[in-house]
Amino acid sequence: MAFLEGFPIFLMVNKMIRLCIILLVINFPNISASEQQLYVGCAEVSITPKEPVALEGSFTLRISDGVHSPIQASVLAIGTGSSKSIKDLSIIVSADLVHIPNVITNKLRQRVSQIIPDLDVSKIFICATHTHQAPVVMSDNFVLPKEIMSVDEYINFFVERVSSAVLEACNDIQQGSYAWGLGQAQVAYNRRDASFDFTAQVYGGVSAKNYRGPEGPEYQGIPVIYFFDNKGKLMGAAINVWSPSQEYFGGNKISADFWHPVRKILKKEWGDDFVVIAWCGAAGDQGPVRRFQTEAENRMMKLRGLDSWVDEFGRRISESVLDTYSLVKNERKSKIFFSHEAETIPLPGWLLSDDEIKEIKGWMNAYQKELDEDPSKAYRLARPISWRKQTLERQKLFKNSTEGFYPSEIHVLRIGDVAVCTNQFELYTEYGLRILGRSDASMTCVVQLAGPAHYLSTAIGIKNGGYGSRPESCAVASEAGDVLVDVTVDKINKLFDPLLRNLPDQGKLVENKPIGVGWVDLLKKMDNWEYEKDYWNIKRGNIIGSSEGGDHHFCWTKESYDDFEAHLVFKLTGASANSGFGIRLKPVSYSNVPGYQIDMGSSYWGSLWEEGGDGMVDQFNPKYVDRFLNHNDWNHYYVEAKGNHIKAWLNGVSTIDVIHENGPIVGRLGFELCNGPKQTKLEVRALYVRKCNKQN
Q1: What is the mean pLDDT of residues 265-286?
Q2: How far, in Å, CA of 9 to CA of 463, rounded?
Q3: Of the four, 158, 446, 502, 585, which is 20 to 30 A from 663 by CA?
Q4: Which residues contact 285 (CB under 8 A, 6 or more apart)?
Q5: What b/e string do you get for 590-622 counting C-beta neighbours within 10 Å, with b at 16 or more?
Q6: Are the beta carbons of 222 and 183 closer than 8 angstroms?
Q7: DSSP character for 34?
Q8: pLDDT (tens digit, 9 = 90+) per residue, 381-437?
Q9: In what order do the strands lie in the sheet with 200-202?
Q10: What is the percent of the chain with per-residue pLDDT over 90, rounded to a whole number?
Q11: Is residue 263 scored above 50 in pLDDT?
C-alpha cells in the first residue's frame, strides 16, 4: 500500500474491497450501439504544496510565500454498461496547473495501473486551468534554490494525491444521470491587439492611435455538463470556460484564481461534496483582462460589493452555471450514448529557415553570456534561455524527421448529446469556433491544455507576429491547427453521425443491377421516352442530358406509374449543375413539367422538390452531403413511392422520408436540366423500376 503515501490504511483497504465488488458488477463498453445506463463517480483533492515552490507562468523566477487560495485537482470517472469489466471507464482529471507535461500524465497512468490494473489508462487525460500561480512542473525552465520543493518532488506529490482521488472516484462509481446546458458570461477578452502596421501584441494597448482592433474572435459561451447520483443528487459539473484563470497574477502566492470562488459559491448551493471539473476552452488568444471601459467595469464590480475581479469572474461563472441548471435540471437522462476515443496524431511541425534559427541562437547566446558573467541573474535569465533552447531542440527533431511531424495526443468523447474534445495547446479561439461550427453534437466542449502547453496560433496571428505567435511560443504553426480541427471534427462526427444508413435489401445493387424479380430496365427500350433531341441523347443503356443554362429541359417516360420503387445510377457534372429525378410528372411542355423531383445539385442533394406545387417538400441538410456524395462521379438513388409516402436513399443514406398529403400519386418518370445560369451534364447508366403491389 506504499503507493498511496499518507492515505489511511484502513480506509484504503475498505475502498479496495468496494472497488473489487464494483469490478464484478459493472461493465463500461467503449462503443455504444445503443443508449446504456450511465455510471459516474467524482472526487477532488488538494494539490497545494505545504512547502515553498517555484511558481509557473512568468519568465522570472518566483518562490511561493503563502496561499491566496488552495489549488485542487478534480476527477470524473464515467462510463456506461452493466456487466463485468471496468477497463473502458474514462477518467477525466482537471488540475489547477499551468500545463500538463507528458511526464505527469505518464506517471499518473503508471500509478493508476498499479492501483486499478483492469483500467485502460490510455483513457485517462489531465487538463490544466492555466492559473499562473501554480507550481513549476518542467524541470529545465528555471534554476531553483535547493531549499524549496523541487520539480520532481512536486510531480511525485501531485501524482500521489491525484491517484488517490482516481481511486476514490472509482469507488464512488454508481448508476447516475446527466443533464447539459449552454450558459453565457463575459469572462475572456481577445488579448491580441492588432495595429494598422499589420503587427499584433498581447495586451499591446487599445488606446494607441494605430490600434486596429482585436486580432481574432472571442467566445463567451459556458457549456456545462451536470452529473447526478442514483438518488438524483448533484455530484458535480464539468464547466467549460473559454479563458485561462489568469486574473490573479504576478505575486508570490499560490492561487486557483477565479475557480476558487466558483467552487465556494457552488458548494454553498449544492453541498461540500459537490465537485467542480474545471475545463479551460480554446483561449490561446483570450484572457480575463478587461480591454475597454475599464473604469466603468471596475465601478460596476465595486457596486456589486466585490473587492476583486477574481471574485467578479467567480460570480459571473457561478451565476451562469446556476441559471443553466435551473433550466435543464428536469431534463436528466440516465441512459445515454457514451464513447471515448484517444489517439496520438501527427501534426506538421513549424520548420524554421536557417536565418530564423540563427536569430534564435543569437538571442539564446546573448542571454547565456550575460548569465555567465553574472550567475546571480539566473532568476531572470534561465527561462528566456530555456525557452529558446527548447525551440532549437524541436527544430532538430523536425529536421531529422522526413515528415517533420509533431505527435500530439487528443481525446474525443461522446457523453450523451455532448461532445468533449481535448488538445494539448493554448489553442487560439478561431480553431475552437471552427470545431463548434462543424460539430454534429448538440453541444461541444473544447478542452485545451490537456498536455504540454504551446500556443497554436492562426495564420493571421503568425503573420502579425508577437508573443504567442512566434516560433519560441509555438511548437507547430497554423497548418497544424487546420489538421487538428479536421481530425477532431471527423472523430466527433463519427461518434454523432446523424445519418441513417438503413437501405433495405431491395435497395441494393450488384454490378449496377437490382436484387430480386419484377424489375424493368427503362434504358433497354428507347421508344418509351419523350425528349428534346437538342438537349437529350437517349440510347440503349444510357441517357445523357446537357444544357448551358436557360430554360428548363425535361425528358420523361411515356408510361405513368403510381406506386413503385426505382434504382438510378447517375453522374452530375458542370458549373453550378442542377438536375433531378422526376416522379409523378404531369408534362405540359418540355419546360413546364409539374411533379416531384428527387433533387440533385449543390444545396439540394437528397431533397424532395415539387415543381409547380409546394416547392421544397423535404429538404436534406446540405452540411452532411460531402460525407457520402461522390462529387463529379457515379452515385446511386433508390426511391420508394407508395401513395403519398415518398422515401429515397442516396448512396445508402436515407435522405427523404415524408408523407405529402396533397401531392400527386401518379405520373411519368423523367429527368430535368434546371433553368437559370446552371451548366449541367447528367449521365444515367442504370434506371430500373418495379411496380408495387397495392396492398403493400
Answers
A1: 98
A2: 58
A3: 502
A4: 190, 191, 192, 202, 215, 216, 428, 429, 457, 461, 468
A5: beebbbbbbbbbeebbbbbbbbeeeeebbbbee
A6: yes
A7: S
A8: 998 999 999 999 999 989 888 777 899 999 999 999 999 999 999 999 999 999 999
A9: 200-202, 192-195, 211-214
A10: 86
A11: yes
